Amino acid sequence: MTQTSFINCGKLLPESEKNCLNPEILNVLNACENHPCIEFVELRKDEHNHTLIVIDVNDGTFEVPNQVGIKRNERLALRFQPEEIYQWAVLALREDFPVTIHQNQTVSGQPRDLCIYAQPWATVERSWTPESFLVRVFWWLRATADGTIHPDDQPLEELFFISPYHFVLPNDIFSDDGQTQHEISFSLVPKAEGKTQFLIGGYASNNEKNHGPTCLPIFVPLEPIANGRIEDCPVNLAQLQERVQGRGSDLLDRLKEGVKSYIGSGKEIVPSSSQLVLIFTVTPRERNNEIERFDLHGFLLESHIGELGEALGVAHKALTEANTWYSETTIGDTQPESTAWRSISVAPVSVSQFPSRSQIHSYSGHQAKNNDLQGILAGTGALGSALAQIWERECWGHWHYVDEDVIKPHNLTRHIGAQEVIGQPKSLVVDWMNRNIHAPQNPDSPQSSRHFICSVLSEDEALQEVISRKDLIIDATTTLYVPRELARKDCPRVASVFFTPSGLASVLLLEDKARTIRANHLEAQYYRAMLESDWGLDHLEKNLGSMWVGAGCREATVALPYELVMTHAANLARRVRHAVPDDQAIIGVWTLNEDTGSISADLIEPASPCQMQMGDWQVIWDEDIEEKLNDLRTQCLPYETGGILLGIVDQKDKTITVVTASEAPEGSSGSASSFSRSSAEEVRENANKRTGGIVNYIGEWHSHPQGCSAMPSHADIYQLAYIGNTMFTEGKPTLMIIVSDGQIGFSVLGLGGNDESIIYINMSKQSNQ
């Protein structure tokens, strides 16, 4: 049997010094001596005066041999290092202890440093005990041996090391074979004292200024692999070249070409830390024969560019010019190959990439469905800009932004912009800010603008062409007319989002995918729910007042804290994202409880709309109104009943939209042949108040007894004319609805004010024509 060899760290401590140890060390030592599966071996002191407790750990709970090479008996050293990141380190003393995941990088010949904890020591020490420490050591050995220490669906971890530099690369820098297509330059991120220095890589053609050190990046693509192995970090160029050659590539040729290209016909190179030579190895990782990602490893050469060129034999230093090197253009056939490069030290550096869209979706917890939705966001003010930023951070959808307004000083209280964008178009600002959230733009990617400085209703040809390619229009303009106009247009599906003046509630009105229930229909049904629900009592009240920010009456802004903007923006962003994959229409109201901070939801099921053209006017209602009118009639049979109609008259669109119908006011009387309504002023005032003046009186309704049609009688026509004379003073048409057996009749009095202007039609309640 081959004898196991161990690494001896430092010097042996005599047994007599045991009682002089730090109490914390003694506690761990006592725990080891009391553990049934641990045998204490000795105490040692390393060159840094750290105390090591050397133990033999015996664990028979995992299989041997195992794929990694962990044995059931391992000799470990528990090192007390109070000034380090972790107060206790665990070192594997077996000379041939395997290189595994969850180890810290160590110098060749030194014991393997096991990474026992994932959380920071400041967190670990809150529950740390000597006994729990030993439990963790056993867990590491067992989990490493049976392969459960790292989830299968996560990227393989490398050895941990501390680097003074962290380089960040664009996510789309590599082609499928790991080659780079564009030159990269780095910008320096100012660092706090003692922290890692970050350098952000971008495409050189896009960087107007280089704010970082001079970097010579050399990218070395390796052969694709399915599963990699953990390896020690090379310490010099010779070891790195050997590693690269073992992966089917060559480092030297790329390094020589890079140095020669950089030096050119002559360049002054000042030896300093501001000139870095970087080597990035790029390993495509395969799954099912497809490239899933690229593994990146970075190495910093401890040599400036001129010296490296000399060591490689591709550059020479000028004899008369200080710190100037020239590339070698002619090398005699008999000149021996330079080997000075082999001993140049390399140090690992941290390297990562900006996340890809699919990675961002994963980080955000998104499902794949609808992530590539094509959308227009109309209105990029407080709410719109917040939604735009949330969706851009989550990479949900591909958006164009439309707004005709500019940023004014008072907008900064609720807009994502800052002082430097005052006077700039809101849509341009949102577009620019969103482009700078994630990875730098690839020069090969389309660079067209994603904003329009106009109204979404504009006939601008470029805007109309973009709209024709979209799946969804989000209206965040907070105007009445935009969603109504969009409802009349042949355009993509429309969603209207807004919050109430108080900022305590937000609303989503989303058309169904087929657009059978459009934005104007949803608006009316939202108002009906507001009138008929408890939440609607103060839904549009509690306005905190108006602040005047300019000389004109159109320069008013509401008092609304940014915290409420973001509260509702976050909720609406999520609600829209969840609702869009469903083809159904949605009416949603979310109300914040000011006292508790809870948000209550009221979801109203939209009803199918109905409409007809009557002269110059289009009458719009829905099946829920039909059902309500029939129910009210049925409840009062054999007597007639009635009430007032509340709705919206749009003079521009020439539409009369029925929002709801009231019950017979108290004091009304009905018989088998007539109905007399009492005053409904309270109902009218309540509707006007709750809806902020949007919903008003538009006419009357009443029922006919059994056996009668919905055709208006002479008395009905007289009543319509009488009411019309009153409505005429406000320039409004008058609507009368009659409900009978299986029929609902509609009569509209136009603005002429006489009997001859009456248009009537009978229609079945089952018909939606």
Folded structure, characterized:
It is built from 16 helices and 37 strands. By secondary structure, the protein is an alpha+beta fold. The chain folds into four domains: 136 residues, no CATH class; 181 residues, no CATH class; 238 residues, NAD(P)-binding Rossmann-like Domain (Rossmann fold); 155 residues, 3-Layer(aba) Sandwich (Cytidine Deaminase, domain 2), CATH 3.40.140. Strand 24 and strand 25 form a beta hairpin.
CATH architecture of the largest domain: 3-Layer(aba) Sandwich
Q: At the first level of CATH, what is the class of the largest domain?
A: Alpha Beta
According to DSSP, the number of beta strands is 37
Structural class: alpha+beta
Q: Which quaternary structure do these chains form? A: single chain
How are the strands of the biggest sheet laid out side by side? 20-19-18-21-22-23-26-27
Q: Give the count of structural domains.
A: 4
Span of the ends, CA to CA: 94 Å
Q: Helix amount, in percent?
A: 10-25%
Q: Strand content of the residues, in percent?
A: 25-35%
Mean pLDDT: 87
Quick one: CATH superfamily of the largest domain? NAD(P)-binding Rossmann-like Domain
Query: Which consecutive residue ranges, at least 5 long each, have pLDDT under 50?
Result: 331-335, 543-556
The major beta sheet can be summarized as: 8 strands, mixed
Rg from Cα: 38 Å
Q: Give the CATH topology of the largest domain.
A: Rossmann fold
Q: What characteristic shape results from the CA principal axes? A: elongated
Give the number of helices: 16
